[in-house]
Amino acid sequence: MIRPLELFIGLRYTRSRKRSHFISIISLISILGITLGITALITTLSVMNGFGKELRGRILGVISHVTITEAAGALHDWRALAERVKNPRVEGRAPYITGQGMVSRGQGVSGVMVRGILPSEEQQVSEFGSRMIEGRLDALKPGEFGIVVGSALAWKLDLAVGSQVSLIIPQALATPAGILPRFKRFTVVGIFKMDMYEYDSGLVLMHLDDAAKLYQMGDQVSGLRLKLDDLDAAPRVAGALTEELGANYLTRDWTREHGNFFRALKIEKTVMFVILLLIVTVAMFNVISTLVVVVTEKRADIAILRTLGASPKSIMGIFLAHGSVVGVLGTLVGTACGVLLALNVETLVHGIERLFSTSFIAADVYFISELPSDLHWSDVVLVSGCSLLLGLLSALYPAWRASKVQPAEALRYE
Question: pLDDT tens digit string along 202-213?
Fold first, then answer.
């Protein structure tokens, strides 16, 4: 336990004197090192939290929380199945037909995933309706062969509402001239922007009836998509539905489709925490070297205090207090700077990008084109606690050495 006397003397030793400017400079460098390490650690963890949150939100705005299909691969009566799904966590239901295709216009060609939807039902399970930048999702009418495309695909093929495109699908068509791929001409009735390049460039929507005709599905659909009130409950809900519906149906939740991706993000966050914590650890070695120099310089003072009745524990407490000041100051300043930077990193990045007319994040490489940040106070507490603990540990050895100084030896040459 550090008493007020030890704390007072320890704090007094931190003040700079004419003959100890060098020690003060080293202490300042140590504080700056800790500050930079804590700032970088909090900011990096917040940015990685933001990436995970944004990616999960955007991916789950397109895919379903839970998908139900029949074991044979297609669903015959989706309305009857939707009535059977009575789980209280299910908020929305919508059928879909999915397939592959290739969109062409003029000399431009692009491979896409095709999704047939019912616009009135799709609003319950996805965010396409709120992400339309041109046209409307409900402009998809049965028999009119309209199509909704992503913003990146529209830019690539120079498409706008009213443009005509050809959709080629891999199913073959036998003709007297030979085997030809099947294709159909569609009219663009809307453009969506999910702010995720994978979907904005490679996904097109059409009415469920048109997709059924195109892929010769008849009255079948590929499956039924469900939206839940809590996406983290998807594995439990999928398991319950599997038992409820029986072996003829297959259920799949989003964690099975993209779970590895989000687990990889979590592992990467842990690894980044350990790596950046090493920066703080290196700064703590400066604290150790500074305290060793201080103990060497204060040997005479230590001897005098011992002769006045100070115990080895008191001497150790003095230098623990002295060493802890550096760690505490660096942690407090670094935590404040890290929190401020994490809360304003998006604004700062946008300002730097505008200033230098560049983009730090390529949407086609990193899925998203922004640098999100999501500050978790649990991360702040964890980082600050680790820094304070390292600061205390770094002061232990020099303080122990100070407590072992013998007064007679220290004052021999004074």
Answer: 899 999 999 998
